[in-house]
Write a structure and sequence with these properties.
The structure is a single chain. With about 190 residues, the chain is mainly α. The chain is about 55% helix and about 10% strand. The chain has two domains: about 110 residues, no CATH class; about 60 residues. The two termini are about 45 Å apart. Helix 4 packs across helix 5 and helix 5 runs antiparallel to helix 6. Strand 2 and strand 3 form a beta hairpin. The strands form two sheets. The protein has a three-stranded antiparallel beta sheet. The protein is built from six helices and five strands, in the order H-H-E-E-E-E-H-E-H-H-H. Bound molecules: zinc ion.
């Protein structure tokens, strides 16, 4: 039976997601990821003597610093909800597959927050190319190139704090968007003329 998230009531959704999350946290995939990032070092007592128990930390895969278990997250390198989809479009099976993958990494909470934010920027900017049968392959490629350029430049612009650079990025975005609009309009004309 195929169930999509959009068919599940909003009241039930959090319980289902919580169940997935808990099952993931107790999975061997999750534990294996922690083991790989684990770093042990000697711990010293106040009197300078070596403590029996080792200090256990985990290495963030982005900033490469060491953190306690409280300060890290196990991150899905490929987001569980793909960047060009919303959860509502997905079936429970697809979500399950995305969740229980071994393509995982340990990230410290600040690095994880940045990654999630970037993913959400891409998500909110993702648009699909309006392809129609008359479109040449060359123009389809050009369309995707432009969409990618727009999204990437928007991400760079979000991080940019230098006014003159920001203006340059905004000009570039406008330029790409204009090109994309022209490309799509070229084919709209073909449709309306016939
Ligand atoms: Zn980090």
């Amino acid at each position: 039976m195929i169930i999509r998230f959009r068919e599940i009531s909003n009241k039930a959704k959090p319980y289902i997601l919580d169940g997935f999350r808990k099952a993931f946290r107790y999975s061997s995939l999750y534990k294996d990821c922690l083991v790989k990032a684990r770093h042990e070092s000697p711990r010293f007592k106040k009197d300078g003597n070596l403590a029996k128990r080792l200090k256990v930390e985990y290495k963030c895969n982005t900033c490469m610093n060491l953190f306690s278990q409280k300060e890290i997250n196990v991150d899905h390198i490929n987001p569980v909800v793909p960047l060009d989809k919303t959860m509502n479009d997905m079936t429970l099976g697809e979500y399950y597959k995305g969740c229980f993958t071994d393509v995982l990494q340990v990230l410290c909470k600040p690095c994880h927050k940045i990654k999630t934010k970037e993913e959400n920027v891409i998500r909110s900017n993702v648009r699909t190319l309006n392809i129609n049968k008359k479109m040449t392959e060359e123009d389809i490629d050009r369309g995707y190139e432009l969409i990618t350029a727009i999204v990437l430049t928007k991400i760079i612009a979000e991080k940019c704090h230098v006014d003159s650079d920001l203006a340059m990025h905004k000009n570039a975005i406008n330029y790409y968007e204009k090109q994309l609009k022209e490309l799509e309009e070229k084919y709209e004309e073909v449709i309306t003329n016939k």
